[in-house]
Task: inverse folding
């Protein structure tokens, strides 16, 4: 009911749930938090822009009071990045992609912590570092660009 109240219609709420099923998980999403998130979004950017942000990134409704510390441009920028990322990666592949990125970061950290890492690990990390740098750097630049553009 809170999701429908936030989106204003069952059709928009359904689209949000299909875009991000985690929004329906009661372990992460609380009705009061959703309603507070929408209230804060509307204060910061108005009803139309708030709805656009919620459509781009339904998870914004899980933020609650933490939205108070962010500007409208930051919120919109992150929503645009999240939406762009969702269009690039199929939903079925997202958990695997997150696992691969976390494993790659873990390998890079482990290679630095080891006194004498195996040659195979060093070779793998030498390949992964530029890839991780590119992915994380591009994410940062896109976020900064989107935030600047929406301000």
Result:
């Amino acid at each position: 009911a809170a999701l429908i109240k936030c989106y204003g219609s069952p059709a928009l709420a359904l689209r949000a749930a299909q875009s991000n099923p985690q929004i329906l998980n009661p372990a992460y999403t609380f009705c009061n938090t959703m309603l507070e998130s929408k209230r804060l979004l509307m204060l910061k950017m108005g009803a139309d822009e708030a709805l656009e942000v919620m459509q781009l990134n339904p998870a914004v409704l899980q933020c609650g009071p933490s939205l108070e510390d962010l500007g409208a441009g930051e919120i919109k920028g992150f929503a645009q990045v999240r939406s762009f990322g969702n269009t690039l990666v199929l939903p079925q592949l997202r958990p695997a992609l997150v696992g691969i990125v976390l494993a790659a970061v873990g390998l890079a950290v482990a290679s630095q912590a080891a006194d004498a890492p195996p040659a195979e690990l060093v070779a793998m990390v030498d390949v992964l570092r530029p890839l991780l740098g590119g992915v994380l750097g591009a994410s940062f630049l896109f976020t900064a660009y989107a935030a600047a553009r929406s301000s």
